Amino acid sequence: MKRFRFPLRPVAVLREHRELRAREAFAASVHAYVLSEENLAATRARVARLEGALAESRRGQFHPAEAAEAFAAYRRECAAEAEAERAAFAARAEMELRRADYLEAHRKLDIVRRLETKARATHRFETNREEQAEFDDLAGRRALRRRLAPA
Predict the structure, then answer these.
(1) What average pLDDT does the structure give for the chain?
(2) Cα 49 from chain centroid?
(3) Average pLDDT, stretch 86-108?
(4) CA separation (Å) from 112 to 6, 50, 90, 127?
(5) Would you state the torsion angle of the CA atoms of residues 63, 66, 71, 72, taken in this order, to the nearest 10 degrees?
(6) CA 88, 90, 96, 100: dihedral to nearest 10 degrees?
(7) What pTM was computed for the model?
């Protein structure tokens, strides 16, 4: 039986490496996105706590210096929240880009794998056909020998 040799094997190896790199980049971008979402949630929690503290401070006696300091801290946290939102949106966009890259690399690898599967099936079919032809030829020669042999 003739050994199977897939002529596009080097292409498959390259595409496997590209797919692996794309998968790793996608995983890293997912991790970065999760971290940015956690940072955004923590920032929003700090803003909510400061809003509660500001509302609570309005119920008691008014101290202008404390109120100004609390409001400045609130504005800093609001700015940090806006920056965290921008970072989360950027991380999500990067994650979507990496996902698209990964899906494209996976699709290209899948094409080569399907071609290899088809080539293997064709090779198996051809090999089985040749083997059957050899068996038929061998059986035909034996039958001819029996007919020609003196009885």
Answers:
(1) 93
(2) 38
(3) 97
(4) 10, 57, 33, 22
(5) 140
(6) -160
(7) 0.76
